[in-house]
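STRUCTURE:
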């Protein structure tokens, strides 16, 4: 091992951690969920823990050719572009509880 040079910066290389997320979501599974009757809102679980809500079938667009990419529309006019290989699960949306105010 060489002695450090004056003014040189020493780097320590850490082992590389590779995280592989299992691909459990397919375009076909998503279509099956969208076509359930009656429709029940769900969310796409992302690797960082976020859930992208799909409260109605019109809030999601599926790429017609490969069915790998979807667009999830936000209620405020924005959208998320999602690669289905990153979606780990479809989760039911929490039901709103409590009494309605009049």
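SEQUENCE:
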């Amino acid at each position: 091992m060489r002695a450090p040079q004056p003014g040189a910066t020493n780097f320590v290389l850490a082992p590389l951690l590779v995280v592989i997320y299992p691909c459990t979501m397919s375009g076909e599974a998503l279509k099956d969920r969208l076509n359930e009757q009656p429709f029940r809102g769900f969310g796409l679980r992302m690797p960082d823990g976020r859930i992208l809500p799909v409260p109605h079938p019109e809030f999601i667009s599926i790429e017609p050719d490969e069915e790998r990419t979807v667009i999830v529309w936000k209620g405020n006019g924005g959208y998320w572009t999602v690669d289905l290989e990153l979606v780990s699960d479809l989760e039911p949306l929490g039901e709103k509880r409590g009494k309605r105010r009049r």
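REMARK: The chain has a mean pLDDT of 80.
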